[in-house]
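Run Matrilin 4 through structure prediction, thanks.
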Amino acid sequence: MRGLLCSPLPMLLLLLQPWESQLQFAGPRCRTGPLDLVFVIDSSRSVRPFEFETMRQFLVGLLRGLDVGPNATRVGVIQYSSQVQSVFRLGAFSRREDMERAIRALVPLAQGTMTGLAIQYAMNVAFSVAEGARPPEARVPRIAVIVTDGRPQDRVAEVAAQARARGIEIYAVGVQRADVGSLRAMASPPLDEHVFLVESFDLIQEFGLQFQGRLCAIDHCSFGNHSCQHECVSTFRGPRCHCREGHDLLPDGRSCQARDLCNGVDHGCEFQCVSEGLSYRCLCPEGQQLQADGKSCNRCREGHVDLVLLVDGSKSVRPQNFELVKRFVNQIVDFLDVSPEGTRVGLVQFSSRVRTEFPLGRYGTAAEVKQAVLAVEYMERGTMTGLALRHMVEHSFSEAQGARPRALNVPRVGLVFTDGRSQDDISVWAARAKEEGIVMYAVGVGKAVEEELRQIASEPAELHVSYSPDFGSMTHLLENLRGSICPEEGIGAGTELRSPCECESLVEFQGRTLGALEKLTQNLAQLAARLEDLENQLASQK
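Sure, done. The structure for Matrilin 4 is below.
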């Protein structure tokens, strides 16, 4: 692949006009028939001003080669960084001049690069009928052109696969620093026709002309025998076979078979999905029961835990990653049986200072906890993990904050989530937490220091320390945490919430105490006998 040369701005502007004109006058405009086309434009911080101008002119040049109209090609544009913004929707404009005016007025967002979020927006919003897309039964091709210059900060493969499964054809165009692996994960097959890495400014016109040429297609289904089992649809890449509802196209491109819905929808089953005709159902492992939502399996129900989460809100985390942390916390809450009598959850955020977001005794349902987590505002600043541990020990597990009395023997669990080295000493309060009987877990991300994670966590470290190289891949830690925190699977198995003053408890206590005293008496008698033998041996030697 050829390299993109960072030319000075005046030179780029000189090059833009001929390219734009070439697309405009390359020949008659395409008569494609109906087409819904959405451009997904990366306007992240890494896109320099003159590079964004390049993409702007790229869009204008392509528009001038399209047959735009309500009954022909409908065009929509969205831009994204850490958020997604609709520049104009598919049904907004029918005149090319109005579209060009909106594109020229476009202001970059200049934040992160959440490409997966942009694809999800395109799939769920931009290509919706409400936004101007033709309904699915109209069989109008849906095409998304993603133009990006860097590596996504979120996952793209799964959401891109969902978009393609919904019939959206994806072209991935990378400029200069774009990650080829991500482009290939997003694009439709065949990849050699849908992935473009533009490493030279001159090559942008190459993609534009190729793309324009593919749109200019004849009705291929009218020529020869297409051999489609159900239906043939003519596209700009040639004839394409479609299957009836509830069926999927086989690899031969012609035959159809009944759809395995578990592979074609976001079923949400926690353990296993089983297709049954035009529907599906979720299954759970042996010994676990399906919950009322029809998707999740047994939660932590055989015991009770007081759980306090310490979340790092320092500047190094960054706002978009803090949102991922909040999502991760809510996924932990999902497998807990949150209630006043069951598991209680508290949340503390720390940076240069410590703030209790909500104490253990405030919320009595998982829904309330999750809503409160989503409302937490990012603190930024430093990383005072030692101060956070002290706050947890001195305040978070107090009865005033909602912790249950120690006499009830409810396990106390602290989970520290951090992405870097602490700016204060953690050793004293990490040790104090464990002395107080708090079972400590440490979750590290990115530049978290392993030595500190081990110092925070209870023994053995292999069961109490988790690590993820980046925020986007944290979800693989959930199963480990579930196995450790869930009372039936980990620390609090079989814990009963009983008053020590109940009659049965007193009888049980007295029985255990008498048994222990009896055993102690036997041991003392054996020790006395051994001492007497030793004295006799010493006397005989004299």
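The two ends are 100 Å apart (CA to CA).
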